[in-house]
Design goal:
Layout: H1 4-15, H2 21-29, H3 36-43, H4 50-65, E1 68-78, H5 107-119, E2 124-129, H6 136-152, E3 156-160, H7 166-175, E4 179-181, H8 191-194, H9 200-212, E5 216-218, E6 221-223, H10 229-241, E7 246-251, H11 268-281, E8 286-289, H12 293-296, H13 301-304, E9 310-312, H14 324-333, E10 337-338, H15 346-356
Parallel strand pairs: 1-2, 1-9, 1-10, 2-3, 3-4, 4-5, 6-7, 7-8, 8-9
Length: 369
């Protein structure tokens, strides 16, 4: 056997596509629901086909979101001191990570953070609090702050407060909260591997309470925690079944002192394929590149925006991100534009249009009509 035959065989295997990516995008645009087998194929896309996969995925992104990029900012309003045992989290009760620990920020601190978010071109400001769920005192405080922000700044408000009861969700909706973030984090099958103090169904119940209260859902997950490809696909399809409007895709940032500190098995190309999967599985949803993007995507960060249409800017919960100025330059270098202030949810857009006496205009290819 010639020494070249194994090389030729390997090249042939790499160059033979398991799917025609452009055809897959066309079918998704025509209403096809991505199957689990197709999701696995996306994750296993040969690196040599990655440019073609990104180009095909960009067609779907552009249909619904044009070349707009929405900026999100978050404030870790209550750090550490959490009774849950989520293995990825530096704020959990089992974490030995050296992080700031403090009770709920006061109103002045949260208002100042919201003002900075608006100055950094963020459309949405997310108030995050570590813990199993909010106390009544904490919920009252959040409601007061949300009302103040909404009356003074052109920001949409998202809250991430842990598990919520139906009554708590209703009170947040009445206060003007646009969305609630509550991530599934992984698949139902893998969830017991990362947390034992609450269940996957507990999280599903909170999402149901949020939906029943009339708010939109912000829910995504974390990739790179030792899960299987099947788990990533299952999470993406579960979010589709829930009709989640906003999906943050996090890539595990292993933090010293947490059980997953040594988990470092992602590369930038795999991360891009994950983003393509979430876009093709959820074509109309906002897909946000969230925690870990700087660490794992590195120089390929801009290419992620051919699948995703949103970014968390500046810092995350207990880790640092790149500067807002760098994010602005990245978006502008792509020829994309940052979405300006205005209602983000369909409900907010309809209310704004009604107040103006007109039909809501959609700049995303017609998905909001």
């Amino acid at each position: 056997m010639s020494v070249l035959e194994p090389i030729a065989s390997a090249l042939s295997a790499v160059s033979t596509p398991s799917l025609n990516w452009d055809d897959l995008a066309s079918r998704v645009l025509a209403g096809h629901a991505l199957t689990a087998a197709e999701g696995i194929a996306v994750l296993n896309c040969p690196d040599v086909e990655l440019p073609a996969l990104l180009a095909a995925t960009y067609r779907v992104r552009h249909k619904y979101w044009g070349n707009e990029v929405q900026f999100y900012s978050l404030r870790n309003a209550k750090s550490g001191l959490c009774p849950e045992d989520c293995g990825y989290c530096s704020q959990s009760k089992i974490s030995e990570a050296e992080i700031p620990k403090y009770r709920f920020n006061d109103e002045a601190t949260l208002l100042a953070s919201a003002k900075i978010a608006a100055e950094n071109k963020s459309r949405t400001f997310c108030i995050v609090a570590a813990g199993r769920g909010p106390t009544e005192k904490e919920l009252d405080h959040v409601i007061k702050v949300v009302q103040k922000i909404k009356s003074t700044l052109p920001l949409n408000i998202c809250c991430c407060l842990g598990l919520l009861t139906p009554d708590q969700a209703r009170r947040l909706a009445d206060a003007g909260v646009d969305r609630v973030n509550h991530n599934l984090n992984t698949s139902r099958r893998y969830y017991p591997e990362i947390c034992s103090t609450h269940t996957f169904d507990d999280r599903m119940e909170t999402l149901k309470a949020v939906r029943d209260a009339g708010m939109e859902l912000c829910s995504g997950g974390i990739v790179g925690m030792g899960e299987l490809q099947d788990d990533i696909v299952d999470m993406a399809l579960t979010l589709r079944d829930l009709k989640v409007e906003s999906i943050p895709v996090n890539f595990l940032h292993p933090i010293d002192g947490t059980p997953l500190a040594g988990q470092r098995d992602l590369n930038p190309r795999e991360c891009l394929k994950v983003l393509c999967l979430f876009r093709l599985a959820n074509p109309e949803s906002e897909i946000r590149i969230a925690g870990g993007r700087e660490l794992h995507l590195r120089w390929l960060q801009p290419q992620g925006l051919y699948a995703a249409n949103s970014l968390f800017v500046s810092d995350y919960l207990t880790t640092k991100g790149q500067t807002p100025e760098d994010d602005v330059r990245m978006v502008e270098d792509l020829g994309f534009v940052i979405t300006g202030p205005g209602p983000e949810t369909k409900k907010g857009q309809q209310a704004a249009a009604a107040a103006a006496g007109s039909q809501p205009e959609c700049s995303h290819g017609g998905c909001c009509s």
